[in-house]
Amino acid sequence: MRNSQRLGITFAALLAFAAPVYSQETGDPSAKADPVAIYQEAGATPAQQDKIRELAREFEKVAKVKNERIKNLQTQMRNLSLEPDPDEPKVLATQQEINTLLTDIANSRIRLMLSIRQILNGEQKTKLVQLIRERNARYQSNLTAH
Predict the structure, then answer these.
(1) Is the pLDDT confidence value at 12 over 60?
(2) Which of 16, 24, 33, 55 would staple 105 via disulfide (CB 3.0–4.6 Å)?
(3) Measured CA distances, 104 to 52, 67, 143, 144, 145 (Å)
(4) Of 120, 108, 110, 28, nearest in space to 61 by CA
(5) Measured between alpha carbons, how far is 36 from 127 in angstroms, rounded to an integer?
(6) How far, in Å, CA of 132 to CA of 24, rounded?
(7) Secondary element (H or E) of residue 26
(8) Could you give the CA distance from residue 103 to residue 30 in angstroms, rounded to a whole number?
(9) Number of C-alpha atoms within 13 angstroms, CB side, residue 20?
(10) Predicted pLDDT of residue 13
(11) What are the angstrom distances between the C-alpha of 32 and each of 19, 23, 25, 80, 117?
């Protein structure tokens, strides 16, 4: 696996921390805005915002541990790939563990999004989706403009 691929996978995994919150705000998971701002704009009360922040913190805590494990496994995979005759079962098992952890993080991110939506009332959810669509359209427009 090339360095750029490993870095891309690692970066994508690290972005998984905040992706459901940041991407809902801007359409860009690398954005550095307040992750709860879009919910506030959608009409979330301070109490709802506190619940959202707590859910995000819990997600980040668990995802951080998994991302550290992924980083270690990627180092193992690099070392295995540098062997003249890599142990195929070990290589495949290491990759499977990486895949499982990435899938776990992705599923947790979706569960976070769904949990956050349950905190909001119908009007807030509708406004949130409208805001997301608008921001995603702007983001896509900016991508195609470059």
Answers:
(1) no
(2) 16
(3) 20, 11, 29, 32, 34
(4) 108
(5) 14
(6) 5
(7) helix 19-26
(8) 20
(9) 22
(10) 41
(11) 11, 10, 10, 36, 22
Rounded CA-CA distance 77/71 in Å is 10
- pLDDT band, very low/low/confident/very high, at 145 (cuts 50, 70, 90): confident
Give the position of tokens 């870095």.
7
Beta carbons of 49 and 36 less than 8 angstroms apart: yes
The three-state secondary structure class of 116 is helix
> What's the mean per-residue pLDDT of the chain?
85
- Share of the chain residues as helix, strand and coil, in percent rounded to the nearest 5: 80, 0, 20
For the segment 74-111, what is each residue's pLDDT rounded down to a tens digit?
999 999 999 999 999 999 999 999 999 999 999 999 99
This prediction's pTM? 0.72
Q: Write the CA distances from 142 to 8, 28, 29, integer angstroms.
A: 22, 11, 15
Q: Distance between CA atoms of 93 and 80, rounded to whole angstroms?
A: 12
Among 61, 47, 29, 57, which residue's Cα sits nearest to residue 132?
A: 29
